[in-house]
Amino acid sequence: MNKNSADVVIIGAGIVGASVAYHLALRGCTDVLILEKAEAPITGSTSFSAGGVRHEFEREVNIRLSKYSIEHLKNFNEEVGGHAGLNLTGYLFLINKEDVWAEFQEQAKLQRSLGVKVEMLEPRDVLHYVPGTRLDDLVGAIFGVEDGFCDPYGIASGYLKRARELGVRIALSTAVTGAQVQGDRLITVETSSGPVSGKYVVNACGAWSGQVASLFGVDLPVLPYRRNAYMTENFPQFPNPIPLTFDVESGFWMRKEHDRVLFGMVNPAETPRVNLNVDWDWMPEVLEAGIYRFPLLGETRLAKKQCWAGLYEISPDHMPILGRHPEMPNYLDASGFSGHGVMHSPATGMLIAEEILDGRAHSINIDELRITRFRDMSLQKEANIY
Ligand SMILES: Cc1cc2nc3c(=O)[nH]c(=O)nc-3n(C[C@H](O)[C@H](O)[C@H](O)COP(=O)(O)OP(=O)(O)OC[C@H]3O[C@@H](n4cnc5c(N)ncnc54)[C@H](O)[C@@H]3O)c2cc1C
Q1: Which of 8, 221, 268, 336 is 20 to 30 A distant from 274 in Cα terms?
Q2: Ligand 1 binding pocket includes 224 (Cβ within 6 Å)
Q3: Is the entire prediction scored with pTM above 0.90?
Q4: What is the count of structural domains for the chain?
């Protein structure tokens, strides 16, 4: 084995790169080298995630990615090792408009047909989960029984540890800076530590994947957008746990983190750039939306030092971009998760391993996730992205 070459070169040591490495090694493909620009693994978006896992998507392929992934996480500690920290506290979607309620009910039919346990609740049932919720303008709620949250760092480090035991290598402080392409093949990846050649190259660079793809002459429409996670001081007024709860109209979400409340809401004015500073100017609007729906939150105190910001890796249709590139078949994308890369990382690792070892992913049909879809001007967006 040579430190400057490998059968498979994976760029990025976050949860996605780690899962791809593990799934390849598990199938006997152990000549795998992970290149990571940071001094340590798992320092990108994975370490800033809220760790939510859910099945309630509009698009069937997303539901299938969740189903495989959440099942896998249930047995993660025994099968992979490490700490998945899976808490199946449920997801609760609060809906205040008749047309949105009709859409969610329609989606629930599809989810149920795929074996997802999803319940439709009357507004008054919500109080069973989140005391003090404002109900007067709610028309219904959806409860995802087998959803919840996990430990993204524990999962990524579990994958990496097992992959390394199986022979996978990792080169830290090694930034990919360019590439040599010959015809339709990516021959050599240039790095800050010298050239590295691979029979296959996987781009698992999360929010940076668009930038890295451009080094290879690939136009990958993935951009970095800041997302904030705010934390309160201990707040026993809400029981622990509560479901990961979304007020669908505003986009306000919250869950318990031990005795504290972790919460957030997307700022639609955010522009694409790498910005990891917490947005304090946005904070009052987030709190206003939160207190409107959950008046008890007016009694909380913010734990400023426990708040953080990280990056979502947004694609134009909020869907992952997976698989071999049609014009450069030894280059593969594994990004564009649009804020759902933790929950979809187990399935992604399995599918990318199939793309490489079997020629094509087959456990789940990922054709609608391939980069070729951007040639089509009428993209179908995933609706349930927050
Ligand atoms: C506030 C917040 C909340 C979130 N909540 C959830 C949630 O509830 N559920 C969920 O599923 N997801 C959530 N996400 C999204 C989730 O964190 C990401 O989708 C996921 O971590 C992506 O993993 P990744 O491995 O692709 O990327 P990353 O973890 O970012 O890893 C990419 C790696 O690539 C490396 N890299 C970049 N450029 C180069 C280069 N040139 N050379 C070498 N290495 C490079 C980076 O250093 C990094 O280590 C959240 C994100 C944020 C910010």
Answers
A1: 8
A2: no
A3: yes
A4: 2
